[in-house]
Write a structure and sequence with these properties.
Length: 1530
């Protein structure tokens, strides 16, 4: 192979894998698990990774397709589809898969597939894996050494290509000559021997037929006719009868008459593998022999090594010989070669079968010298099923009936032989052979063979333990998992004990045991052998409750205590089986291997038995792979199967989609009196996948109905409830059909018509295509009446710019008399393209030069087209992008790439340019408008419509300010939008308005692409943010919030950087109930977002409780004072549908906004209060930052007021920047809310309402100057700021763990990673906090760093609280300093602005850095690291010592040099770097920091002192002197 010649090949698997790689289009690489490689797969993957070219692969890069399949997932199923489509397939596997795949082997034998089989167990292979399948119609080749493995692998491929039939190449993978190595194959030789002409002929004539269970495979045939024993060939053809394909009767004949020559042929009607002829020629064993002879002679000429069907080693005059079928032929040959003259085995010969099947009986005679009289047959077959070994029978029949001089043939069973024991073994064999009465089946070699180590050791994949953990968590000691790998099954191997059949048996035994126990108890209850009377009554009660899960627990406790007291002999005897008083929850756990044909019987047994047994089946096929998977991989839908059975409880669950639903399903399964099947989805590609991948895959599968979440309980019918409950939105077709049949669907649809709409959505792009066609035709009809040239305008747009330009262009075109049609690129039927007259495409640029979402399908459809002829089409392209987005020179190609690609490809199809491509650049003075205007003018000119008389004025674009004014104090059409059930969305203007009400519309970005592909609208849902001044919540409120997240949201809560609760995934229909529930908890969401003053933050500070209370009161006062007055909030959210009854106390206020006016503020407005020395609210980052000042008496006297801090910025737009607040001066406590109000009012009147990117207070102050801003505030206020009072900050992070305040109360700060409250199988945090809230008497405080404080715990409550915390692992604060000081915003999947992952990725990144921290002794050091998914800056990244801000998916801008206590902004260090680079940079910086830092010096300060980054003194120099200058060259 190219560039590989120096590699030494050391193992047979490696040698074989290399040949298979060169000789195949597809390699099915069977692995123990997706995470553990096989002996072959490492080599295969390495070659593919290096893009080494195969000799036969027809893929574009000539790299074969390597399909990794788990050994227990029916691997040979993967062979059918590719081999039928004319691709050469080989399989690399161990012998473990052969027997279970026997049905496939029969079908595949007539196709040119090569199976390379490493025999198992590795230390001492059992050749019965081969002998058992010897009659399946394959050709079997054997190799016995490393070099032979290479040569036979090549022979196998060459033979499969020539014969068109399947070849199995088997070998013992353990090399007994350690350290041996050979040279890699010579590619030229491989090419020669494979014969590429034959290869191409096969590849160009794919085999028809697509099913594998009809008569499309060959029938294994073994000729019943004896072959002439000395040369010559017999056309031993057996025509199969009709039924042969289904019941290969020939096989059973064959097994009893195995010694004749087999014919690897198939009837012409079913074997059309290799040629394009209608009927394939029959391939006889003689043909196989001839092919082999020619291949081996070619091989011998090229490499000098010779091979033949039977190989003889020894003197030509030998009288005795051994025929070996096992691993040790070389060992025996060597020992015989070195024999002393007197040795009984001196001068003996050794014969081996290189070609095991077809068995060429005649050739063996030719191979054995005529002098041979006695033959010892040695078979390494552990699993003997017949009295005589199969090889013995072969040899007997072939040799005995010959005319040679062989007199004695004696079979031996070959045990383990080593270098040390070989001579002794030989002596034994020859003594027996030459004795007068040789013993048949004598065992030779050691019985005590090394413990067989199966390469495919059973191990539960790590990820899959999630579900068993839940079982244990739910049922505690009651959970019994019968086939658990860690359970103790004395004397039974893992392979057996983990099988469903064994597990089922174990469960039945367990059940019987308990039934016997119940009978014993019953009897005891009636006996008089107790010392006291009490146990009898308890026992009787227990017996009646014994099968009732709900009642039995209490009865069991009672019985046990009574028996203990009684202490009679009978009591003691019963107590010996104490566990049986409880009713165990019996579970069998299986993988999705059970859903293939071969493993399905386990499930069937359970269902058919009707026993009360629970089965948990974990399916791990990722959604993205299901499409790639061969349709023939007939994975059974076990859920449907079980429901059709009728007697079972069935649930389909996914822990990464709904944790609660898993719990519910398991609980219901446990209670159901009969078989229960719980299907659990856990998709992963490799077992080391991060939870993020698993989560994304799960969401796709659930959202699109591939893996619906549901529960089916056939007993519900009796209770008058529906049997079926759907817990996710969509279901797949098959399930729908089932429900249709079951009449459930109709009932459900009647019950909930909304749901019907979701059900009736179907898959398929067909519908989508038709929709497109219909829409366009309708549009064309509309245009019919118009004159003028047609102009079709398509847009590809992510952020709306390209879309609004396209719409405006359409309006302008119409005004010029053109027949314009405007639509998204994805909505355009591409087949119409050649019929267009004029087409214009406006597209923006996404990510790394990619098409926007709605442009991709169009691009995918045309980019590789070979048929488009656009000779009569005129076109023009306008591209929108940012020339500085990717500052590195090598990344310049991404600038406007989609537009440029389109322009090029359309021209290549023959279309004529109306104008040159227009390039809109965000960096131009007017942004993209600069380039656009120039381009548009040229376009009209090219279309001849420049001067068309008076053109009506266009309405100005609608701005946020217009929306606010028109909204009637934030009403808009929100009410109407909520009632519209035809969409899960609300209108665009209402999306702006609902922000003021504390809710944003979002869509799930993990499933956006998939839904688009299926013609569905995005998965819209809403984020709701509460307003919680100072972040203080009562335990009751905590429970109420927890309820809302579980019942109305996505089962998680986010504690935000603004110290409040945020819910995600609330669908439109649940929005109003959620708002009402929040209000019932005496919280509101009004003004949590929007252009108003938002939640007022306050230091959480657990150590000074009394003082905190005073400061907190101010935060509440400011918050209330600045709350908007509109009654729209009450009207929309808190009234019943009859629009009368208000839900909360108090009258609706008149609609008048005394502070805000009808247009509210130009932009959002944020206030925070810090209590020195803690800056845990990042006081510098807000529009108003208040620093609490303590008087000499220890009480609050007032605040230093900072104004004009703010985080949001736009990448590459130097006019935008983060800023720290500037000091206006000191205000007294009593005045502080008024001072805040006045600052806000000056901003209201002077803030920029034209440009939202320049509308925050920071720009107003910077434009006005601090002094004149201060004067304006003082003027309005009528008072003056006093000079600021001294203060001192130490940090902006939280201190985790317990503290005690001055009043003697205790506080514990929990570590809540990135503020996400959720349950996982490993960490039931949400449940734990809920349990704590149930008993907690103090309060909860949410911190600005997204953590949580359990506040005000009295000493007497401490022990109980501590034990509760320990139970739920909530007391853990042992995290690295870096992790403790980190925070991330939400970003994907819900935030619509996210460009990259944040909350889901930062923990992973930190884990990757922790080893380095450890190495450099920095584990305990606090370094403030923050990440956000976009430059909006929700997690305040620009005040962190090191920050990552999302630039594109997987790419971040890196910032360094922030101040440790949030006082200094950081600066851009590197642009658009990915994980690898981030880790490299961080590791080297951390190493340097550890070595170079001064005592107590923080990381951010060090980066500046060490010259790594320049100091940022204020927002206005944020862009100055960045470490990585952007290149301005195009
Ligand atoms: S910083 Fe950006 S990505 Fe992160 S939550 Fe805020 S807006 Fe979304």
């Amino acid at each position: 192979m190219a560039g590989e010649s120096s590699v030494a090949v050391r193992t047979p698997e490696e040698a074989v894998a290399r040949i298979a790689y060169l000789s195949s289009d597809v390699i099915v690489s069977v692995q123990p698990s997706l995470a553990s490689d096989s002996g072959f797969s490492t080599t295969l993957k390495n070659l593919a990774a290096q893009k080494v070219e195969s000799l036969v692969a027809k893929s574009s890069d000539a790299v074969p397709d390597i399909q990794s399949v788990r050994y227990n997932a029916d691997p040979l199923l993967s062979v059918f589809a590719p081999i039928r489509s004319g691709r050469f397939v080989s399989v690399t596997t161990t012998s473990a898969v052969l027997l279970p795949s026997i049905a496939h082997l029969y079908k595949l034998a007539s196709l040119p597939v090569v199976l390379h089989v490493a025999l198992e167990p590795k230390s001492f292979p059992d050749y019965s894996a081969i002998t058992s399948i010897r009659n399946s119609g394959w050709t079997f080749l054997q190799s016995g050494s490393l070099q032979e493995a290479q040569d036979m692998a090549l022979t196998a491929h060459a033979l499969a290509i020539r014969s068109g039939k399947g070849v199995i190449h088997f070998f013992d993978p353990s090399s007994k000559t350690k350290g041996e190595s050979i040279s890699p194959e010579d590619t030229a030789v491989v090419r020669d021997i494979l014969n590429l002409d034959n290869v191409r002929r096969f590849q160009s004539a794919p085999i028809s037929g697509s099913v594998i269970y009809a008569d499309d495979g060959r029938v294994a045939l073994v000729s019943e006719q004896p072959e002439p024993l000395a040369g010559g060939s017999t056309q031993a053809k057996v025509q199969p009868s009709e039924g042969d394909a289904e019941t290969p009767t020939a096989t059973s004949h064959a097994s009893s008459k195995s010694s004749q020559q087999s014919v690897t042929s198939s009837p012409p009607s079913v074997s059309t593998a290799t040629t394009i002829e209608a009927a394939a020629p029959v391939v006889t064993s003689e043909d196989i022999f001839n092919y082999l002879t020619s291949i081996w002679s070619q091989l011998s000429q090229s490499v000098g090594r010779q091979y033949s069907a039977f190989e003889w080693k020894g003197p030509r005059n030998a009288e005795n010989c051994i025929f070996i079928f096992g691993s040790d032929a070389a060992l025996f040959s060597r020992a015989i070669g070195q024999a002393q003259a007197g040795d009984i085995f001196a001068n003996a010969g050794v014969i081996t079968a290189r070609l095991y099947r077809p068995w060429l009986g005649a050739k063996i005679i030719g191979a054995i010298p005529r002098s041979v009289k006695k033959i010892a047959v040695l078979e390494q077959v552990s699993r003997k099923t017949t009295k005589w070994g199969p090889l013995l029978l072969d040899v007997l029949t072939s040799v005995k009936s010959s005319v040679g001089g062989v007199e004695t043939i004696v079979g031996h069973q070959l045990g383990y032989i080593s270098n040390e024991t070989v001579n002794q073994a030989l002596r034994g064999i020859f003594q027996n052979l030459t004795s007068e009465k040789p013993i048949q089946n004598l065992e030779v070699g050691e019985r005590d063979r090394p413990q067989p180590i199966s390469e495919y050791k059973l191990e539960k994949p790590k990820l899959e333990t999630a579900y068993t953990k839940i079982l244990n968590q739910l049922f505690g000691d009651r959970a019994f998992i019968a086939n658990s790998l860690d359970s103790d099954n004395a004397g039974i191997s893992n392979t057996i004990s983990a099988s469903p059949d064994y597990g089922f048996g174990a469960l039945l035994a367990k059940k019987e045991r308990r039934q016997r126990f119940v009978a014993e108890v019953k009897e005891a209850a009636g006996s008089g052998r107790f010392l006291t009377e009490v146990p009898k009554r308890s026992l009787a009660k227990w017996v009646s409750a014994a099968e009732d899960v709900k009642k039995v627990e209490a009865a069991a406790e009672d019985v046990i205590s009574k028996l203990t007291v009684d202490n009679s002999r009978l009591s003691k005897a019963l107590l010996q089986n104490k566990a049986l008083f409880h009713k165990q929850s019996l579970w069998l756990v299986g993988s999705d291997a059970w859903s293939y044909d071969l493993g399905n019987s386990g499930v069937h047994h359970v269902l058919a038995s009707g026993e009360n047994v629970n089965v948990l089946i974990i399916d791990s096929t990722p959604y993205s792979e299901r499409a790639a998977a061969d349709a023939n991989r007939r994975k059974k839908d076990i859920g449907l199967y079980a429901m059709n059975f009728g007697n079972a409880y069935v649930a389909s669950t996914a822990v990464y989609s709904s944790y609660t639903q898993v719990l519910q399903a398991m609980d219901e399964a446990d209670k159901f009196n009969g078989p229960s099947i719980v299907l659990a989805y856990l998709p992963y590609f490799g077992e080391h996948d991060s939870p993020l991948t698993v989560l994304q895959e799960t969401k796709k599968a659930v959202d699109l109905g591939y893996w619906p979440l549901y529960r089916w309980n056939p007993e519900n019918e009796n209770k008058g409830e529906p049997n079926f409950s759907l817990d996710s939105e969509r279901i797949k077709k098959e399930l729908k059909q089932f429900l249709d049949r079951d009449n459930q669907l109709t009932q459900m649809m009647r019950k909930d018509p909304l749901f019907g709409a979701a059900l009736s959505q179907d898959f398929g792009t067909e519908i989508r295509a038709q929709q497109k066609r219909k829409a366009k035709d309708a549009y064309n009809q509309l245009l019919e009446g118009l004159f003028g040239a047609p102009l079709t305008i398509l847009f590809g747009s992510d952020n709306g710019n390209a879309q609004s330009l396209a719409k405006r262009l359409g309006t302008r075109g119409r005004a010029r008399g053109l027949k314009t049609a405007v639509m998204a690129m994805e909505d355009y039927p591409v087949e119409d393209l050649p019929t267009e007259e004029n087409i214009v495409i406006i597209t923006s640029t996404a990510g790394q030069g990619e098409f926007p979402q709605n442009g991709k399908p169009f691009w995918d459809a045309i980019k590789d087209s070979t048929e488009l002829d656009l000779a009569s089409v005129k076109f023009s392209v306008m591209a929108l992008g940012d020339s500085h987005y990717w500052p590195r020179r090598e990344d310049k190609i991404y600038y406007n790439k989609p537009g440029k690609d389109l322009d090029r490809v359309l021209a290549n199809f023959g279309a004529k340019r109306l104008t040159d491509i227009g390039l809109g650049d965000d960096q131009d003075p007017d942004g993209y408008q600069t380039g656009y205007q120039e381009w548009e003018a040229k376009l009209w000119e090219a279309l001849g419509v420049t001067n068309v008389g008076s053109i009506p004025d266009e309405p100005p674009p609608i701005t946020n300010e217009d929306i606010k004014i028109a909204s009637n104090y934030l009403r808009g059409t929100i009410v109407e939008g909520l009632k519209d059930t035809s969409t899960a969305a609300i209108s665009a203007p209402d999306q702006q308005l609902t922000k003021f009400h504390g809710t944003y519309m979002q869509d799930d970005r993990d499933v956006r692409d998939e839904r688009k592909a299926q013609g569905l609208e995005p998965a819209y849902s809403f984020m709701i943010r509460c307003r919680l001044p100072g972040g203080v919540s009562t335990p009751k409120q905590w429970i109420q919030m927890d309820d809302i997240s579980t019942t109305l949201g996505n089962e998680t809560m986010k504690l935000t950087t603004r110290q409040t609760f945020q819910f995600h995934g609330v669908v439109k229909g649940k929005l109003k109930p959620a708002m009402q529930a929040i209000n019932r908890a005496l919280m509101t969401t009004l003004a949590a977002c929007g252009d108003v003053n938002r939640n007022v933050m306050c230091s959480s500070l657990p150590s000074q409780s009394r003082y905190h209370r005073e400061v907190f009161a101010s935060s509440k006062k400011i918050s209330d004072h600045l709350l908007p007055s509109t009654s729209a909030y009450h009207e929309i959210w808190l009234t019943d549908d009859d629009d009368k009854k208000t839900q909360v106390a108090g009258e609706a206020v008149q609609d008048f906004e005394p502070l805000y006016g009808p247009t509210y503020l130009p932009r959002k407005f944020k206030i925070s209060i810090a209590i020195p020395p803690h800056n845990d609210v990042d006081v510098y980052a807000h529009d108003v930052g208040l620093i609490a000042i303590k008087g000499e008496d220890g009480h609050l006297v007032g605040f230093n007021l900072l104004a004009g801090g703010g985080m949001g910025a736009t990448h590459n737009n130097k006019k935008t920047y983060p800023q720290t607040g500037r000091m206006l001066g000191f205000v007294k406590t009593a005045d502080v809310h008024i001072a805040c109000e006045k600052v806000m009012l000056v901003q209201r009147d002077h803030g920029d309402r034209k440009n939202r990117k320049h509308a925050r207070l920071k720009y107003t102050i910077d434009d006005m100057g601090v002094d004149s801003f201060r004067s304006k505030v003082e003027e309005l206020w009528g008072k003056k700021f006093q000079p600021p009072k001294p203060f001192h900050f130490e940090s902006n992070i939280d201190t985790l763990g317990w503290t005690r305040d001055e009043t003697g109360l205790n506080h514990f700060t929990f570590f809540i990673e990135n503020g996400r409250i959720e349950d996982t199988a490993d960490f039931p945090m949400k449940t734990g906090l809920r349990e704590i809230a149930k008993v907690h008497k103090g309060e909860f405080r949410l911190t600005g760093n997204q953590h949580l404080i359990l506040s005000n715990v009295a000493d007497e409550d401490l022990p109980a609280m501590k034990s509760l915390m320990a139970k739920y692992k909530l007391d853990n604060v042992q995290f690295s300093g870096l992790r403790q000081s980190s925070s991330a915003c939400v970003a994907f999947p819900t935030c619509g602005l996210a460009m990259a992952e944040s909350e889901r990725y930062l923990p992973i990144l930190i884990s990757k850095l922790e080893a380095c921290l450890e190495e450099n002794g920095l584990r305990q050091d606090s370094i403030v690291m923050r990440m956000t998914g976009c430059p909006n800056g929700c997690a305040r990244p620009w005040l962190a010592e090191v920050a990552f801000v999302g630039k594109a998916y997987g790419a971040y801008n890196m910032y360094l040099g922030g101040g440790y206590h949030g006082q200094r902004l950081n600066k851009l260090y590197r642009s658009s770097i990915k994980e690898e680079e981030i880790l490299d940079i961080m590791k080297s910086l951390l190493k340097r920091y550890a070595a170079e830092r001064d005592e107590g010096e923080h990381f951010g300060d060090w980066t500046i002192r060490a010259g790594v980054i320049k100091e940022t003194r204020g927002g206005q120099d944020f862009h100055e002197g960045v470490a990585e200058e952007e290149s301005d060259e195009e």
